[in-house]
Amino acid sequence: MDRKxxxxxxxxxxxxxxxxxxxxxxxxxxxxxxxxxGQKIRLVAYQAKFLNAHExxxxxxVISAGAWGKAAKLADDEIAAMLxxxxxxxERRDSKRMACESLAYVGNTELTLPSAIRETTRESFxxxxxxxxxxxxxxxxxxxxxxxxxxxxxxxxxxxxxxxxRMLRKLAPPGVFSSTTHPAIDSRIRHVLESIDRSRDxx
Length: 203
Ligand SMILES: [Zn+2]
Fold this sequence. Notes:
- By secondary structure, the chain is of the alpha+beta class.
- The chain has 8 helices and 4 strands, in the order H-E-H-E-E-E-H-H-H-H-H-H.
- The chain has one domain.
- It has a 4-stranded mixed β-sheet, sandwiched between helices.
- Strand 3 and strand 4 form a beta hairpin.
- Zinc ion binds next to helix 3 and helix 6.
């Protein structure tokens, strides 16, 4: 997401106030992460019943107000897990990386970045070509990496890293995550658990 995507989202759904708990959890995570400490990371929300979260490449995390609605009921460490996953994307500059990958894979370097992104997004959702398979695999690898790094951030901030798996289960009802960009939840959960075991062994 870029600035414009965030503005569009706010215009379409309307901005929602972010509860103090969320701001507090975010501050705790950012402070504990040496790669992010001291950076200004903003958390904004939009009105929606469903639950969703994104990171934008200018240091903004965007969540839907569905996160604190009746449907979700996230425990504090699950809120932390949702934010830690997005912080991991921010650390890795995943939005920017995706934009550059679009240009790299679309094969026409004359295109502007926004048109290249549009092109590859269409391609990913068509789900038919070799390129769409490549893009899907890249997205899935990115999500798994953000889950694993998110679990490390949780641990650094004194939360249970396994909250990442509980959050994934809650965030995973059909339709919340697109299957082309987000690997099957069981596979993501297995991957996080393996990464948590590995980092425990190495301590
Ligand atoms: Zn993600």
